[in-house]
Amino acid sequence: MSNGIINWFKFASPQTFYPLAGKMIPWFWALTAVFGLAGLYIGFFVAPTDAQQGEGYRIIFVHVPASWMSMFLYLVMAFWAALGLGFNTRLSGMMASALAPTGALMAFLSLWTGALWGKPMWGTWWVWDARLTSELILFFLYIGFIALQSAIDDARRADRAGAVLALVGVVNIPIIYFSVKWWNTLHQGASVSLTKSPSMAQTMLWGMLLMALAFWMYAIAVSLTRVRAIILERERHAGWVEELIEVKQS
Length: 250
Hints:
By secondary structure, the protein is mainly alpha-helical. It has one domain (40-46, 57-238). The protein contains nine helices and no strands. Helix 4 runs antiparallel to helix 5 and helix 4 (90-122) crosses helix 6 (155-169). The longest helix is centred in the first third of the chain and has 33 residues, at 14-46. The protein is globular.
C-alpha cells in the first residue's frame, strides 16, 4: 500500500508528470471524438422533436454539458489551487493555470448557447435571471483568475494569489446550481437529477450524457496539453528540460 502511494506521489513532480501527460493526451482526444460523434448523432438525428420547444431544444446537447463543465472545472481548478496553497507544490499551481482557460471557454459557451436558446423560448437574448447572472459571474471569475496570474511576474506568487481568488469564488458554484430553487427564475429546473428519474426521453438523455463525456474528455486533453507547455515554460532552466529540447532539436 505504501509503495503504491509513493509511486503516485512521484507524479507530483513536473519532471515525471510531463511524459505521463504526453502519453495520456492521444487517448483523451480519441475519446473526445468517439463520445462527441455519438452524442451529436443521437442528439441531432435520433432524439425526437420536443413537443413544446420543437427543434430549438437541441441546443441543450451543447448548452447543458458546457454548463456542467464550467462548474465542475472551477471546482477542480480550486482544488488544485488549494493543494498548491497548502502544500506549496509546483505542479498544483500549474494544473490550476492550465484548467482556467478551458473553464472560461465552457462558461462562455454556456452563456452564448443559453442566449441562443433564450431568444426563441423567452423572446429575448438575455434576462437578468439568477442562474444566468451567476453563470456570468463564474465567467468573470475565470477571467479574473487568468488576469491576476498574468499580472504577477513571479510564478509562485501568481499561483498563491490566484489560489485565494479561486477559493473565494467557490461560493458561486452552489449559487449557480441551486438558483432555480432559491429564487423565482425563468430558467427551467434540472432535467437530470441523482434522486429523481429524468424528465426527458431516454434518447435525449443519452445524447446529452454522451456530449457531457465528450466535453469532459476534451477538457482533460486540452488541459494536459496546456500544462505540458506551462511545465516547459516554468522549468526551462532545469537540466531535464534543456536535455529534452536538445533531443527534439537533434
